[in-house]
Write a structure and sequence with these properties.
This protein is α/β, with parallel strands linked by helices. The strands form seven sheets. Strands 10-9-8-5-4-3-12-11 form an eight-stranded parallel β-sheet. A five-stranded parallel β-sheet has the order 15-14-13-16-27, covered by helices on one side. A hairpin with a 2-residue loop joins strand 22 and strand 23 (598-603).
């Protein structure tokens, strides 16, 4: 019996059939930025061709709509011919693929951006030029031309990006469309551009070609669309020729998180379900769907006909295959951290994945089976050690993994206790499953020493980090605990707490202290906290946030704003959360001493005493590398990875990548391609984009 019968059921579209109900959704990876990368794209998509349909990152139908200077377009036959490498690779693997047509409108990071009205986006330094009526007609014809080129390139369809606050969405919302001609003024007129684009594309490509329309199911911005307007648009794009309606949620400028790890799974499926009731073509659910059971339940309960996942296919290209094989526990689950995907995109870097550094690097980071069964020892079962052990197992090495504690996970076992980071448990579950599948010998409660490592041909040291204890007078006081002691449950906090250190760990700990229960596990509570109301225009209302369960003081020595160094796409969520919970934030603090009275500080030249029950140290980490030094002294060759090598804010992204690269380098891999140097025009592109983005 198939574990996920609805998810894996084929879908007959009349002129073609999707082999299952899973769509690999569009995401910008950086591979779209140049035809130089078509071979890399071919490898990337071919590895994921088990999905029913894959959708590329966005390609603009016109120069004015590129994401950034020299961004990706589909505007001429030369580009179409080059894309044959991609489509041929996918079809060879039995997959189907659609090209996304994305016109960014006022979101384009370029001075030539355009929009329905000359209203500057709050996230863009460039004010757009208002499109004339003739220019609007030209843009519509460019969509049609681009779709036809995609068809000639061998794509099975196109996705028209009509959500996320991009050009089509800008026409739809009174927030950005102040026109009074036939392209604005009334809801029907605001929808005209979307209708005409779909109609023009259908006329250009004929009947036997997939057209997916990415529809904004809820804008999550003031002056967005109403529910009635969204339903009307769904019917109109259906009538105009769309084959499938996909879900888009929120604008990029929205102050409601939509895809970060603290968003509940399938948080927006209810809005997709409402649209599905109003149309007769398949509808796709999206956003924070990262496991097959969630997708199965949505389809089985008639909330969607298909599900779309983007980042989960970065985390595990074999997602569908493993689900079909009854190996769901072996899926490397996307934890929605955004650190190596979206954050890389906004930094003008190639995307990857924290839990799978091989994503988008399939041709350069290769793990081929070894012809020799080398004995490999890995010491430490945190993220780096787990990645090293599993990667070595996948290369057919004989692996022994030593861990001094009674469980695996290391710093991830602490992170998963933070409200909103429950998904981190899934990474530990994945590694546990793969350890068993690969026959890796796991030695828990075992502190490896030099003698234990002498018989191995390869040794990888991944002993991690320990909390750094600062030299503050009275630091040994009973009030003081480390973040590790707190999160592990070894010690508890009182009702009044000072958190010393306001980096990522300090902010996480503050959230841990502030909540009785995680809103990520309660959709209604989460919607209330973030002001999500699907009955309102734009889908937003005033947030209602309960104050923290404790009196919390979060402090740092730096005078800069707390949370300034957090990751770009997730940091604002954490900053908003601790502010809403009433966490007291102190900057420019000098820590004088700790005693029975509490924490003595100097702030703005004034001495103060904070009467607190608990003082939590989030003051950085120190590498635990004693064993590595001992091994080297004994003449045993070893590699050191992760926090043991560099202790830097629990950088799991670097740790997992470094561990994987270390295993890839254990012996020469015949057949592994050598990365080509970046050509001059891409170096120029990166420089110009960096300037445009400030």
């Amino acid at each position: 019996m198939v574990d996920y019968p609805h998810l894996l059921e084929p879908l007959d579209l009349g002129f073609t059939t999707l082999k299952n109900r899973v769509i690999m959704g569009s995401m910008h990876t950086g591979l779209e930025d140049s035809l130089h990368y078509v071979e890399d794209q071919a490898a990337f998509f071919a590895a994921r061709a088990s999905a029913g349909l894959m959708i590329t990152g966005g390609y603009s139908p016109s120069f004015s709509g590129v994401v950034k200077p020299f961004g990706s377009t589909m505007t001429n036959k030369r580009q179409a011919r080059a894309h044959r490498v991609i489509t041929d690779a996918v079809h060879e693997k039995g997959g189907k693929i659609a090209l996304q047509l994305l016109h960014t409108g006022r979101y384009a990071y370029a001075p030539w951006n355009v929009a329905p009205s000359a209203i500057q986006a709050p996230i863009n330094p460039f004010k757009p030029r208002e499109l004339s009526e003739k220019a609007i007609e030209r843009e519509i014809s460019k969509y049609a031309k681009s779709a036809k080129l995609a068809q000639e390139a061998g794509y099975d369809g196109v996705e028209i990006m009509g959500s996320e606050g991009y050009l089509i969405n800008q026409f739809l919302a009174p927030r950005t469309n102040k026109r009074t001609d036939k392209w604005g003024g009334t809801p029907e007129n605001r929808r005209r551009f979307a209708r005409e684009v779909v109609k023009a594309v259908r006329d250009a490509v004929g009947e036997n070609f997939i057209i997916v329309f990415r529809l904004s199911m809820i804008d999550l911005v003031p002056e967005g669309q109403t529910p009635e307007e969204i339903l009307a648009l769904a019917g109109e794009v259906q009538d105009a020729g769309a084959t499938i309606i996909n879900t888009g949620i929120g604008w990029h400028e929205a102050r409601v998180p939509t895809i970060v790890t603290s968003v509940p799974r399938a948080a927006f499926a209810e809005f997709t379900a409402e649209v599905r009731k109003s149309v007769n073509i398949p509808v796709v659910a999206s956003n924070r769907i990262n496991d097959p059971q969630t997708g199965e339940d949505l389809i089985a309960n008639d909330k969607a006909d298909l599900i779309s996942m983007a980042r989960p296919f970065l985390a595990d290209p074999d997602f569908v295959t493993k689900a079909a094989e009854g190996r769901a526990d072996a899926i490397n689950t996307c934890i929605a951290c955004n650190q190596a995907c979206l954050d890389h995109t906004f930094e003008n870097k190639r995307a990857s994945c924290l839990v799978n550094p091989r994503a988008c690097h399939e041709r350069s980071l290769v793990l081929l089976p070894s012809p020799s069964r080398r004995r490999v020892a890995v010491v430490g079962a945190g993220p780096a050690g787990l990645a090293a052990a599993v990667s070595a197992g996948e290369r057919n090495f004989d692996v022994t993994l030593f861990e001094s504690q009674d469980h695996i996970g290391g710093q991830f076992a602490l992170a998963m206790e933070i409200p909103g980071k429950e998904e981190f448990r899934q990474t530990i579950r994945y590694f546990k499953t793969r350890i068993e599948e690969l026959g890796i010998k796991l030695e828990l409660n075992t502190r490896a020493d030099v003698d234990a490592l002498r018989g191995f041909e390869e040794v990888i040291i991944a002993t991690g980090v320990a909390p750094r204890v600062p030299g503050i007078e009275g630091i040994e006081h009973d009030k003081v605990v480390t973040y590790a002691q707190l999160l592990s449950g070894e010690k508890t906090a009182g009702d009044k707490v000072a958190v010393i250190g306001a980096g990522g760990i300090g902010v996480d700990v503050s959230e841990f202290l502030a909540y009785d229960k995680s809103p990520t596990l309660d959709l209604e509570e989460w919607q209330r906290e973030w002001g999500v109301d699907g009955d309102k225009r734009g889908g937003v209302t005033k947030p209602e946030v309960d104050k923290a369960r404790r009196e919390i003081h979060l402090m740092q020595r730096k005078t800069s704003h707390i949370g300034r160094g957090l990751n770009k796409t997730t940091g604002w969520v954490h900053r908003a959360s601790i502010k809403a919970k009433g966490v007291n934030q102190w900057t420019g603090v000098t820590y004088d001493k700790i005693d029975d009275a509490g924490l003595h500080i100097t702030h703005q030249g004034e001495s103060k005493v904070l009467d607190v029950d608990t003082i939590v140290l989030c003051t950085g980490q120190e590498s635990v590398r004693t064993l590595f030094d001992q091994v080297q002294a004994a003449g045993i060759e070893a590699r050191i990875v992760g926090g043991a090598d560099v202790a830097a804010e629990l950088d799991a992204k670097r740790a997992i990548r470094q561990a994987t690269e270390a295993v890839a380098a254990l012996e020469p891999q015949d057949g592994a391609p050598t990365p080509e140097p970046l050509p001059w025009h891409l170096k120029l592109q990166k420089e110009l984009t960096a300037r445009a983005m400030g």
